[in-house]
Structures are given as C-alpha cells and as structure tokens.
Amino acid sequence: MMSDTSQPFAISDAPLGGLPSADTTLLANAPLEVAICEVRFTAESIGVPVETAERVRNSLSESLGIDFTSIQPATQNTMEINLNAGGASWSGDETRGWQIASANGQHSATVFPGSVIWQVADYKRWSISMRRPLDMLLGAIATDLSPSLIQRIGLRYVDRFVDHSCLKPQDWEGKIDGTLLGPICNPGFGSLVTGAQQQVELALDGRHGSVLRHGPIPDPASKSINYLLDLDVFANATWPFRVEEVLDTAERLNRTALSLFQACVSSDYLKSLQGEGQS
C-alpha cells in the first residue's frame, strides 16, 4: 500500500464534490462576520519561541499595512478518552503558543507548535484577506518550527443574514433555499416554528468534507430574526509540508465554500447581496 503523502488533489479552480462553479462577483452587502483558516501539521518543535511571534507580528504589519499591537500567550486544550476493560479514562494536555492581534481586533494569528490559525472579521477578498497573510504565516512556520507533514486544512466562514423585515423564521422563505428551511416550510406546523438549528455533513470526496450549520436566530436589539450560516470546509489528508501546496489547497476549499454558500440562498437574494437593483 502506498503512503498517503501526496498532495491531496491536483491544482484546480473547480469546487470539490462536483459542485458547480460559483459566481465570483463581490458582495456589496456581505453577511460575513468572520473567516477562519486553520492549518494543522506535525513538527519536532514542542514550543513556539516569542521571537517567532514577534517576527509574525512585524511581517503581518508590513505585508497588510495593519497595526498589530498585541502579542499574548495562548493555550490550546486537548482531551483524549481511553476505553479499556475497567471503563473509560480521560487525559488532557495543554499546548502553549502565541496570539498576535491587530489594534482594532479585526485580525489575529495564533501560532501553536502543531497548528496556525488566521482569523479576520474585516474580509475583503480571498487574495488580500486570506492568501497573503497565510503565505506569510506559513513561511514563518516553515522557517522556525520545521514542520514535516500537513495533517488538516480547514476554512470556516460564519455568515449572519440580517433583514429587519424578517420578524419570524417563515419570513426567510424566498431568501434561504427552501431545502434548508425544512420544517419552517411545513404546511401543517411551519407557522409554529420558533427555531430550527440544523447541521448538515457533506462528504465531498475521500479526503475532503464540509459541515454546514444553519438556522434562524433572534436579534433582540431589532426584534427581528436573523439567519445564521456557518460553513466549515476541510481537507483531511497527510502530505509533506509545502507552503505553496497548502495555499493552493486552501484556495480550492475557498471556492468550494463559495459554491456551497450560493447553493444556500435563492438566486434573487444572491443578486440583492451583490447589490443588483440598488442605486
């Protein structure tokens, strides 16, 4: 049997899972609250020197033109459950690293000995908000921590659709695709539904998947109902750590997430998010 250490897929612009190509028009009314990319890897390092955090901070500030003022210790807890004849036992471990955050709190990078996380709340477009900082972060990791293998790449996009005219979950009919609304559209009890948080798991292929969490959520401030769409797309595969291949993998995951996003909303609502019909 051959070892699974090749790149997880051939370079391609097409979304995974046979999903249709997405419309790449930028949204004028983007509902995105936060975008997150996590890259997990194996490395010999058991800690992250503060000098690495300082270099990441300086590189981010120079590359993005954003003032990163904060470097704070970060911890990551893991829990392992061991099953044996005597029952179950739990063991925990704590990993230490650093979080580097911008002055306005809209951008942050967290570096651990086995993972790096980039988070942005002020998303512009993939090339600027994600690929450029990831390129810099992964380059720093490659130099300082000497990673050997990639274990997982995950992208997460949390969207909150806001329409103050939606006063009950049923008002999202015609905006969110009806196949997702499910019980809200039920002719018998749909009008009685006050909440319907759901999780959908997708197998895009043998190495890639997605988890879609969604549902209506109340907005007490406006007394309206928002709609939350939380998309997680990921690659679970092991292959040698090469920065450019990680970036290309993440970019294809991004295109997959965009295709899934557009499949979750109606065509008319997508046009309104793109700003069509507005002066």
Structure, described:
The chain has one domain (about 30-75, about 90-275): S-adenosylmethionine decarboxylase. About 25% of the residues lie in helices and about 40% in strands. It has five helices and nine strands, in the order βαββββαβαβββαα. A nine-stranded antiparallel beta sheet has the order 2-3-4-5-1-6-9-8-7, covered by helices on one side. A hairpin with a 4-residue loop joins strand 7 and strand 8 (about 210-220). Mean pLDDT is about 90; it is low at about 1-5.
Quick one: CATH superfamily? Answer: S-adenosylmethionine decarboxylase
The overall number of domains is: 1
Strand content: 35-45%
Helix content: 10-25%
Number of strands: 9
Averaged pLDDT: 89
CATH class: Alpha Beta
Q: Within the largest sheet, what's the order of strands?
A: 2-3-4-5-1-6-9-8-7
The secondary-structure class comes to: alpha+beta
Radius of gyration: 21 Å
Q: What profile does the largest beta sheet have? A: 9 strands, antiparallel
Helical stretch tally: 5
Shape, per Cα inertia axes:
globular
What is the terminal-to-terminal distance? 60 Å
| CATH topology-level name | S-adenosylmethionine decarboxylase
**Ranges with pLDDT <50 over ≥5 residues?**
1-6
Architecture, CATH level 2?
A: 4-Layer Sandwich
Helix/strand order, N-terminal first = EHEEEEHEHEEEHH
Highlighted features:
279 residues; alpha+beta; S-adenosylmethionine decarboxylase; 9-stranded antiparallel beta sheet; 24% helix; disordered N terminus
